[in-house]
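Z., the sequence and structure:
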Amino acid sequence: MFNGMKLDMIDVGAGVLRVRHGGYGPPLLLLHGHPRTHMTWSRIADFLSPHFTVVCPDLRGFGKSFQPLDTSDSRNSSKRAKAEDCIELMRRLGYDRFAVAGHDRGSYVAFRLAMDHPDAVTKVAVIDSIPIIEHLERIDWRFARDWYHWFFFAEPEKPERAINADPMAWYSAIKPDLMGREAYADLMTAIHDPAVVHGMVEDYRAGLTVDRLHELQDRAEGKRVECPLLCLWSIRDDLEELFGDPREIWRSWAVDVQGRGIDSGHHVAEENPVDLANSLLRFFGSR
């Protein structure tokens, strides 16, 4: 797990991020989803680090990275704010240009990086996601039933109370046998910390407020991702079932889209790391 990689706490100006980094070759930033930390990438990093200099942070609000100050619109937990953290992180590691992959909530940060910083991002991979407003504009009863947490997490205080009352009940789908002992212990620390729970919920509140507005502005201005975009999705999750082929949706947001489904449940980096790592290696390793 993270063979030969360093674990650092790096000040990015707004606060301090916990970061695992190392390897050989061009820089590749990996961004985790909810409720994970950078530890979700442990097996992926070992596949990729012989070919890339891999950088895996805990996003602000998650894991052992800093907690931003609260605002009424959750803008300090926005994907734009998290993208700015990533830009500064990579600069402090010596990289002005890099590739990025994100899973779940981390894919929205990767998307925002590619939209806001086209001169910095060479390629982007989004895993198990479509843009936030594409979700919201396609809502049906199935989405309301199965993705209700998007809207519950938008409520003030109640989500934190529910999760903190029994974190293991809320996150009952976590499977330690798939994660590895060290990653599981790290995640247990995160979900039992009320400050981290709040930070993770604020990420969703930002999604329905400031992040949604940023995407609406992008669409109004005709902005698209200019670099190559890889869309991957877990075929035993429900993204394709709910919304159809994710590649078709991403083609409204990027000029060069490719992708495929992977035989996995939602946490693909843990459930099928070989297929995911090979997909990323082919995409980021090609010219």
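The chain has 16 helices and eight strands. The chain has a mean pLDDT of 96.

Let me know what you think.
H.
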